[in-house]
Each structure stands twice: as structure tokens, then as C-alpha cells.
């Protein structure tokens, strides 16, 4: 395992096409695209890693996985009255389907859907209560209390959140927002700014392994469902491609991280800031494909 | 296993909401919606079944799985120049994305994509050669030489194939059709008219199990990829829902059949002619969900 | 003329299908749908009227005509860098095309386009300055200083402006908004709340007649262009229908008013609060059709 | 008038950006883009012309105007059960709206709508009967019996008619086609291949002037309605732009011709084979704009 990770990290270090760092969030635009980290956590918490696996980065949309788990715990299947379970066939921040489908986002992993989930978790609470709950969840999953939010990133995102505010206000117009858009989006940009190292993220993902030894934060039935959604919707309009090439459920973030689950076997995290055309980490996707092939991991046979 | 199947068949026999039989193909519209069959084939070929598992039905779009396997064998990755690998977010027979995406269908399991696959397999051959190749493939997978095409169904579909012809002609206009539309659609309606019993279909699906004992018609790498596509795209715009509820790759047909793969464990076939709003078997989906839950089968944990 | 108007008003008084009053703005939802007013102003200012032509109503989107005239005066053709000149083929408040067309609204008469126009007029000024300029323009056109804004309606619209805020924030995300969305939308809801009687509106429309005697607030070249846009885009996705049935340029408002121009001949205003499925006054459209036919007015022959 | 036409023709002769000749119909792709012709016919039939006004060209979509007039004569308002009256907001050959709007094309001037009109006129007749009726209509309007169909162009279009066949088959699938697609499209490609000189076309357009002296082939009420449709839908997704710049109803064809009506005053034809991005004659549009401005012709004031 360690040898395979070292080999992948070495290959990635010299990869010529590293994608492009997300430019619309100023704080993220500064990140050095040369960085690459990979980590594999076994159910027990034992971690293998290579590259820049100890460098903290912004988990961005990977936070949607933890928030969905929290929402299912708080609201159960009621959450599905506010968000669907289908791949969108469109970009992560599209507003088009929202108009065509009465303000109900396609799934919890596109921006509109994640905003609806955050709004549902908020209820009548303050954003800081929800963010504290999210950090507690992630810290428990990673068994690491040091994980926190990068306020500079949150502030930077808040300043350029026009499109997310548009999604929230549009849902408000369709009756699918319970809190003021400013409150929900304020919470949302902070959840995206949670900062973790690749190693921490791999450890946190163990709650989706569904086997003894891993932290048990949600039931096996819910683990399966969250993994299913990661498989069909976790990489926006490249989810089919990820399933085809990697064969494991995963969730990417615009910060360049990807969390991947080999059910029962291992939680994988990878990070490289350069993104491909669909907004997923260019080298991260490639690295996970190599790892899965090398280990023979696939849920499909 | 047998007890579970019997119990499911009994429940389905009295289900009040059985969906609606496809009405646009006259021969299919005649089918009695009261029927229900389920069968589970182990890698070895051993089959458990219940209900009307010995009644032949039209596999329709399930044929797309076999054709994709043949296309991958004949053309390898070249097939992906003509069809994508992403869920569509739209109905099975939508022409909209074809216009927005330059005549390249979203995936091989929506109608346009399957027509492109059939067209690619045809090359300069006659339709009957391709259909003979398909039947040989299915017969080998099922280890059953009696499987054939229902000519009455094919003829009935040909007469109402306007929308599929439109898809083919539109692809021709965009440079993504190699044969005359009449030839490709003629082949396509016949492949949809392959007739199998639920038991035969369950046996034929074993080629996707990827374990010793099952017929090995394609490589393990391809098995995984076909299963991945069934997971993300196998149920049209309800693929996310099927992944969420059942947790196994599957492909539905408008004849009411569904082929489901529990990788390494079993091939499952179910049949009930009434369809839900997305064009998938209403009771079939429900039955497979119960079976997967009862057996603890899920690729997601 | 008077006899024709009296006859139309009498017919409209007993029309059984009066459409539905706009319900999404609480203040408008209270309006009595039994009301109907019609007025025809000759270039000289002479007015013929019938029905409730002296009752003030909210001009709503008809304000977009006056604002476009002001924008053309202030910015000239530069305004066309921010908004197009084509019918949309979609509903008045659609956000879909904004996404597909890089944040440039289709025309100045759909909501998004009108918001872009308001934003362009605002520049670095305060909303009250812009609103004062609008009132001065309308008062000059109508030669009536008593026209003002209904603050209760403005406040009511502000409280339910989620969709318009979404349009503004989306344009901000695409780089097509210069002022904070709150400022632009604050101005926009107030311009919609200008209150006029049918007679006042008919008199105000004379600035589009393009003949001596009528107030000359814009050049003949601009009059023609504004009228052209009213013809192709003035009734949202029913503009073609209005051109076909009435044959004159017009602009409708969700308050139930319609301003119609018979170039060189007369300015027509009609008001009836009940709307048809496209958001245009049901009886207003019918009444203008009868008037145009009765007078033989059409720009098309 | 003659001086103005000569001046326009001289300017157009040296215009650097002439657009691009339609390439998808091989016979049209051969045409020399240097050509330019313009002609103005007064109601009496007196014609002023300049440039290559005596060179025959393919009228293509301008035939849709004559066919609509015939359809209104044969079927009256029943034709509107099969086609709408709204601008599409999309390209001339789009199939997208057909899917979203149940197979009812937006208007008679987009391809799908014109195919529906042709299909409606066909009824149970042979294509040659319909084509003879069309030629008689055009010959009567132009008072010129020499106008005929270019069979080479028709044959060339037939060979590349995939997209139009797709539109027809899609409408067939939605229940909006009465004849076999091959028959309707066969008629359609021949109607597009009618060949006329610019002078002949200008003379033929007089039937839309609505004043004594011009050939009276349809009632004044219908003239107004046809002109209204030309204004809102005659230039595909650049109809708003044409109304804005020219201010007169017109219909363009992919052969580079445009027929424009100055109601009561003159019928204008212009021809230059190079097209702009919307599929309308680049120089033709410009020339008509100059002519209308020079003459002070506009329906809008």
C-alpha cells in the first residue's frame, strides 16, 4: 500500500497537466497548484499517506457529505421533501433545473441542494450552532479535535457568493427556503471553509465504511444511501465518468480535495488544487483511479 | 432465498398500485399487468425463482446492456467517441440534450445512445448479422439456445418508431450516424424485441458477476465499467433513486423487466409489466428493493 | 370613437372570464377584478375614455418603457452591452436564459432586462434620484404633475421580491450588475409601483406617437426603436399573439394595465386587473383588439 | 429612389464582411458571395432595382410566407391547432422546443412550423399538386408565369435533409404529422427550391401591401396577420433585431434573400448569399436598413 501511494505521488509530482485552480474565490486562487497529497485510512484509523498529506486545505463541497449525514439524523426522510436524489446532468451551480423543477434541487450535492440541506438543518438556530455541530461531527469522524474553519476563506467566499445567494433567493421565491437567504448562505460559506489535511479527511471518511472498527455515527442503512448518492451525484456532471473510471463512491470539492469510499475496506482522501473542466481535481481523480486499480478496489465486481 | 422470493411474489400479487403498461407499442399494450416474476441466478447457474418466472417477455432496453458489451468487444474505447458516460437528467427518449451537445448522446442506455451503439456495431453489415451476434451473446450468457426475437413485437415497434427515427436522423444531421436511419432503427427495434423469461434473463446476467463459475464473456475491467454505467444510467432519470433504494447496478426495460447485478454474488431478474412515471417497472423496482434488503446485498456497505 | 369605447366598456363589464388577479404581490391581490377602464389620447392630448378610466392602478412593468427611454437618453447604445433586443420565448421572470446566455437578459422588457436597465440608470446615484427622474419623465409625457408612487405597493413588492433579487444576484455573479442588488431591486420595485389612471397612462404614451403635437421627449429614431421592442417583446411570451391579434406595439403590466401605440394616430391605455396565463390583462387584450379592429388601426396594412 | 438603390448597391459591392454562404446544402455552397441585388416594387408593379437583381436565386425559407398564405386560405384558423404564433428564442432548426411543447412548433417560420404547414396543406394530395398550387400563387403575386423550381437545388437539399426529417418524425411521434415524413419533407425541400430573381420576389411581395393596385390574393385581415408574424418571427432568433433596426416586417431565407414589406407603400426584395450568425443575409439586412432609413419607412412612427 505505502509503495503504491509513494509511486502515485511521484507520478503526480511530474504530471504536466495539473488543471486550473478555482479562480472565483480569491483565497483559493492563491493556492500553489504543484501540491498533491493522498491518504488511505483503514477502518481502525491506521493511515497510509504520501505527498502533501499534512497540508491543510479547504474541503469546500466535501462538507456536503457531512451535512447530509447530519440532516438525515435530524430530519430523517423529511429532508427529501426539499431536495431530490437524481444526478442533474448540469453544472454544479446551475439554476436552470431549479426553475424547471419548482425550486426543488436535483440532489444534496449540487450547490442548490446543499443550500437547501443547510437551510433545513438551521431551522430556528443560529449559524454558529450549526457550524459547531458540523465541526463536532467531523471531529468525531476523524477522531481529531483540531479541525476547524478557515475564517479568511469563509470571508473571501462570502464576498463572491452572488450565485449562491441567487440560488437561495430563487428557492425562497419557490417556497423552498425557511431562513433569510443571508443566514443560510452565511452558514453555507462557512461550512465550505472547513479546513483539513488529506490525512484528516481520510480518517473522517471512515464513518462511511460500515464495518466494525470505524466510527459509527450513522446507521448502516444510511451509510449505504449516502454512498449511493456520492456514486451517482458526487462529481457533478462528471459523476458517471468517476463511477466508470474509479468504481467507488466519492465527493469532490472545488478546493481540490476528493473523499472516496471503498465500502468496508478503506476511506481514501486525495488533494490537488488544479481542477478539470467539470470542477473536480484533475490529478486527484487520476490518482484515485490508479489507487483503485492498483488495489483492485471497485464496488462493481 | 426461496422463502424470501415466495414472500415477495406473494406480496406483489396483491399490490394495488401496479403502474401502467407501456401504451405506445401496441403489442406491449396488450400484456396483462397482473403478472409478476422474479429469479435469482448464482454464478454457477443455479436459479431460485417465484411467480411468473417462466413467462417470456420483451426485454426491450435491457438489450442495451448486451449490445454495449458487444460494442466494447468490437470497438473498444472508440465507442466513447460516439456516446458519453453521464446520466442525462432527462427522460429516456429526450432529444433535447442531443441538440445541446452536438449529437453525442449522454450515455449508451438512453435511446439515442443505444441507437448510436447499434449503429456502431452495424458498420457495413446487414441487420440480421448483428441480430444473430446479439442472440449468440445472450444465448451464451444464459447458456440457453432457445432465446429468440419476437417478430410480432418488432413489427409493432417498427410501426411506431417515429421518435427513435427522429433521434437517428438528428444524429445523422450532426454527423453521428454511419448507416441509413432505416437500417439502424430496423436493427434497434429487433434487438428490443428479444424475448426471454425472467429465469433466462437472470441466468444471462451472470456474465456481469465477475467471479469464477459465471460465464466469462468480457474482461473483469469491462464488467466493472458496464456495471458502473448501469448504476449511474440504468434507470433513466430515476437512476439515482434506484441506487439509493436498491444499491445495486441495474437496467430496466419498458417491457417491465429489470436486470440487476449483485457483483460477485448473484444476477437478479424481475418482471412486472406496469411502469412508473419514469418508465421503469413499478413492482419490479419494489421487489428488487425488498430482495436486496432481505439479503443484505448492496455495493455500498 | 366615444361610442366605440362605450360599447367596448359595456361588453367588458359583463365578460364572464376575467382572468386572475396577480396573487404574488399582496397589495395587488386585493384589487377588485370587476374593474375595467379604457382611454384613447390623440397627439394633441385630447382624451376619449370609458369605464373606470379615472381609477389609479399600479403600472408595474409598463414602467419599463419609460425607464428604457431614460436609459437610451443617458447611455445611448451602450445600454445594449447589458441587455439584448430579442423576444425570449419564455416567461417574464425566467432565470434560465440568463444562465445560458452569460447573464445578458434577452430584452429590456423581461424582468431581468428591466433590472439591468434600472441598474445602468442608477450608476452611482441614489434610488430616490432615479425615481424622481422617472416621475419627471412620466409627468412630462402625461403633462400631469400629480402622478406619483404608491408606497404601500412598493413595500408589498419589496417583501416578496425574492425572484427579482435572484435575477439581480445572478447577473452580479455574471458581471452584469454595477450596484448592490438591494439598491437596484429597491429602485426597481418602486418604479413598478408608479400609480396612474388609465387616462393618465394614455396621455403619457403620446411621447411614442412621433408626430407634431405630442410631447417630444425622445427622437423619432428612438421612438421607432422603442415601439419595435414593444411589438416584439412587450407581452412576454405572448408578444407574437398580441402582434397577430392587435397589430400595434404595446406593453403590459402585471397590475392589469396595457399601453398601446398607434403610431402617429393615438396612444391607447386599457386596464383590467385579471390576467391571462401569460401574465397579461385578459380583458385588456381583448378590448384593445376590438378597438384596433373597430378603428382599422394596424401597423401591418 | 433609383439613386438610393444605386448608392446602396455600390456600398454593398465593396463591403468587406459579407458573411458566409450556407454550407450544409451543397448546391447553395457553390454560390458566389460577391453577388448583391436589391429591388423595390410599388403597389402598381413598377419596379426599381440595382445590382444583380436579375439573377435567379433559391428563395428557401421565404417560401414559408407563400405557404402560410395558402394554408390560411385552405384551412383558415384551423392551422393554428398545429403551429403557434410566438417567436422561439432559438435557432431556426431547433428541435428542443418541440419536445418541451408537445410537438407544436412555435411559429410557421421556423423549420418545424413550416413543415407542419406543408403537411397541413398536403392533406391527401400528391406533392406535385401542392407544389403546382404554390407556383400558381407566387406567379399570380408576381404576375410572372416564368417562376419555377430548381430541381438540382431540391435534390441537393433532399440529400442533406436529415435534420428536417428528424423534425417531421418527432412531430409524427407527437401526433402532429398527417402524411408520411418522406412525403411532407419531399414537398418541403421542393418549396424551398423555388427560384426567383430579386425583381420577381419584390413583385411577388406586393400581395402583402394591402392597398388598391397590388394583387389581392388574401384579405386585408390576413395580410395584417401575415405581416405581424413576419415582424415577430421572420428572422428566427434575430427577429427582434430586424424589427429594431429596420422597423418593417420581413422574411429571410438561407439562400440569402429577404422579402420586406412596407405596408401600403412598397414590397422590397434584397439578395446577397453570405449569411450572418443567425442565418440571415448579412448584407441584405444592412441594405434594407439603409433603404428604410433613407426612405423614412417604418411601421413604428
Automatic annotation (TrEMBL), chains A, B, C, D:
<feature type="binding site">
    <location>
        <position position="188"/>
    </location>
    <ligand>
        <name>substrate</name>
    </ligand>
</feature>
<dbReference type="InterPro" id="IPR012338">
    <property type="entry name" value="Beta-lactam/transpept-like"/>
</dbReference>
<keyword id="KW-0007">Acetylation</keyword>
<keyword id="KW-0378">Hydrolase</keyword>
<feature type="binding site">
    <location>
        <position position="236"/>
    </location>
    <ligand>
        <name>substrate</name>
    </ligand>
</feature>
<dbReference type="GO" id="GO:0004359">
    <property type="term" value="F:glutaminase activity"/>
</dbReference>
<comment type="similarity">
    <text>Belongs to the glutaminase family.</text>
</comment>
<dbReference type="InterPro" id="IPR015868">
    <property type="entry name" value="Glutaminase"/>
</dbReference>
<feature type="binding site">
    <location>
        <position position="157"/>
    </location>
    <ligand>
        <name>substrate</name>
    </ligand>
</feature>
<dbReference type="Pfam" id="PF04960">
    <property type="entry name" value="Glutaminase"/>
</dbReference>
<feature type="binding site">
    <location>
        <position position="61"/>
    </location>
    <ligand>
        <name>substrate</name>
    </ligand>
</feature>
<feature type="binding site">
    <location>
        <position position="164"/>
    </location>
    <ligand>
        <name>substrate</name>
    </ligand>
</feature>
<protein>
    <recommendedName>
        <fullName>Glutaminase</fullName>
        <ecNumber>3.5.1.2</ecNumber>
    </recommendedName>
</protein>
<feature type="binding site">
    <location>
        <position position="254"/>
    </location>
    <ligand>
        <name>substrate</name>
    </ligand>
</feature>
<feature type="binding site">
    <location>
        <position position="111"/>
    </location>
    <ligand>
        <name>substrate</name>
    </ligand>
</feature>
<comment type="subunit">
    <text>Homotetramer.</text>
</comment>
